[in-house]
Amino acid sequence: MAPRIGYLLPTRERVMDGRPETGPLLDLAARAEGLGFDSVWVGDSLLARPRHDPLTLLAAVAARTRRVQLGTAVFLPALRNPVVLAHQLATLDQISEGRLVLGAGIANDLPNIRAEFAAAGVPFEARVGRMMEGLRLARALWTGEPVDWGGRWRVEGGVLGPTPCRLGGPPIWMAGSVRPALERAARHFDGWFAIEPDLVRWGEQWGEVRAIVRGAGRDVGQFVGAVYLTMAIDEDADRAEQRINGFLENYYGQPAVVLRKRQACYGGPAAGAANYLKGYADAGATDLIVRFAGDHERNLEIFTKLRAELGW
Question: Which of 100, 162, 165, 185 has the fewest CB atoms within 10 Å of its CB?
């Protein structure tokens, strides 16, 4: 079965370029929908990598689109109060009429991200437990029934309204590549979100995730395997590689050689891009979320032609 294709809006890049206006971003979202993309995504960061607030921006995207799924790639629930977050996500799911997907993660252990957690008043070392409990609380509130909660947050007979458009709330895809992250995704959530650069390793991990899903008595056919890909499509392979490397170093402030060991990237001609994408699809990926390194209008058009050639 052909994978669904998602497009990441360049919120971080536009802020870095001193162009934070949201109109062009909404135009890109509408353009992606018009070209047949299946979903539109927005990244998340408070201070570590400044960008637009993802939930606010996705509300505007929801009003400009009618068909595409809307997602976060990836959101950091541990930085938010889960009662407030449950309310925001329920409202956004209503605005989008059930099109929301929450891609979530725990964040990498880097100095700027630790500083971000400190600024938000959240202990970095407690982020996993805080995220897991917070999402359990959000799901309880999404039932619309009175909730009593005695953990990190105290709730007494709390009733949330509105509840999400979809029964049970938006699906949650959990990011991560170490074994505990695979376990969390497979046992507790609706999908696994990966950036693994090695296709063989991704396939092995996807097999592990599916085995855990089955072992937990869950329906593996309903479980999502998503991959986050950074791409620069150019018939000049050297130019494409330079664009990818420059993009990564500017975006993260780290050497490209280090980043490319951790993130799935492709830079090169369209024919090679087709083989690259097909590799993940053949390995079982259900969703490919694409981040373009530069010239989004051009890359959207090229990717659309590439997808047609692949029969997707």
Answer: 162
If DSSP codes are grouped into helix, strand and coil, which group holds residue 165? coil
With 0-12 CB in 10 A as exposed, 13-18 as middle and 19+ as buried, what is 246? middle
For residue 246, what are its two tokens? 């420059």
**Which among 35, 39, 47 has a CA at the least distance from the CA of 79?**
47
pTM: 0.97
Cα distance between residue 70 and residue 38, in whole Å:
9
Backbone angles phi, psi at 283, to 5 degrees: -80, -5
Could you tell me which residues come within 8 angstroms of residue 193 by beta carbon, excluding any fewer than 6 positions away?
73, 74, 103, 104, 105, 173, 174, 175, 176, 185, 226, 228, 289
Other CB atoms within 10 A of residue 207 CB? 12
Q: What is the DSSP string of 278-299?
A: HHHHHTT-SEEEEEESS-HHHH
Amino acid occupying residue 230: T
The CA–CA distances, whole Å, from 133 to 31, 81, 278 equal 38, 11, 37
Those residues with Cβ within 8 angstroms of residue 181's Cβ, 6 or more apart along the chain or in another chain: 106, 174, 175
How many other C-beta atoms lie within 10 A of the C-beta of residue 11?
Answer: 23
Angle subtended by helix axes 199-215 and 270-282, to nearest 10: 30
Q: Which fold has domain 1-170?
A: TIM Barrel (3.20.20)
For residue 266, give the H/E element and its range. Answer: strand 264-268
